[in-house]
């Protein structure tokens, strides 16, 4: 049974700070094509790799990656709060298989996910989806980060296991390409921010609104040409997408944290979700990229890309 893949950027500023209608319409048309691709594939299970932005996972216990054998959405940025339809059996089997492969993945029976995982699921399946899935948190903001090879190996391990299930499994990778939105950072945190990075679960509505307002303002300034932000880098983004299109996933092993940040900004590490997704797809042999789209969207503060791919029979 073939596996299918869809990798896509997310931005909470979608629907809030929108670009010119010609760009927005093109993005929405691409979303329609991706949704048709998913509907045609008709997945029996979805594995979604995605980051968190200190809304669900904190420095009180920061894993490199974590499989959710139960999960709930925190409901940031207008995403639907509440439990996710996790296939617990599948998730627990994945945890065992990955551990057997020598990768020390964490497990959560109640993984808290933010827009990094919730938004792509809503883009693909609508607001109240009930199709079975397994969320996999991939640390992309809580520095320090381990080498890229580890995320490839995680993806391959998951790919080998799902391959053996003889099911139609859709693999989703969520994350921006080059981007540098104002996500707080440990190395420059004030004591007040540090406390929130360690244990910031269930913030007051005022605190959440204040944080979101800051990001909206940053998006507006970015779109107005404020150069104090690291700029979107379309050349870097093309290189990333070409690597996946060329089936050269193992080349990502040589991408260093420094290189990613210099060229793509601090949040470029979200590309780790794409690496895991393509690595999982690649375990069954060759794959074909069926479509790709890209726009540098200043209003959303991110290089916004999407790719779909399917295993070759
Ligand atoms: O508010 C946050 O924590 C993150 C915002 C953001 C903005 C643009 C692109 C992204 O991938 C983000 O997560
Ligand atoms: Fe993000």
Automatic annotation (TrEMBL):
Active-site residue list: 115 (proton donor), 179 (proton acceptor)
Domain called Extradiol ring-cleavage dioxygenase class III enzyme subunit B: residue spans: 6-298
Pathway field: Aromatic compound metabolism; 3-phenylpropanoate degradation
The enzyme's E.C. designation: 1.13.11.16
Coiled coil: none
Signal peptide: none
Keyword match Oxidoreductase: yes
GO molecular function terms listed in the Swiss-Prot or TrEMBL record: 3-carboxyethylcatechol 2,3-dioxygenase activity
Keywords, in A-Z order: Aromatic hydrocarbons catabolism, Dioxygenase, Iron, Oxidoreductase
Reaction(s) catalysed by this chain's protein: 3-(2,3-dihydroxyphenyl)propanoate + O2 = (2Z,4E)-2-hydroxy-6-oxonona-2,4-dienedioate + H(+); (2E)-3-(2,3-dihydroxyphenyl)prop-2-enoate + O2 = (2Z,4E,7E)-2-hydroxy-6-oxonona-2,4,7-trienedioate + H(+)
Keyword Methyltransferase recorded: no
HAMAP family (UniProt xref): MhpB
Function: Catalyzes the non-heme iron(II)-dependent oxidative cleavage of 2,3-dihydroxyphenylpropionic acid and 2,3-dihydroxicinnamic acid into 2-hydroxy-6-ketononadienedioate and 2-hydroxy-6-ketononatrienedioate, respectively.
Name used for this protein in its record: 2,3-dihydroxyphenylpropionate/2,3-dihydroxicinnamic acid 1,2-dioxygenase
Organism: Rhodococcoides yunnanense
Native organism taxonomy: Bacteria, Bacillati, Actinomycetota, Actinomycetes, Mycobacteriales
Encoding gene, per UniProt annotation: mhpB
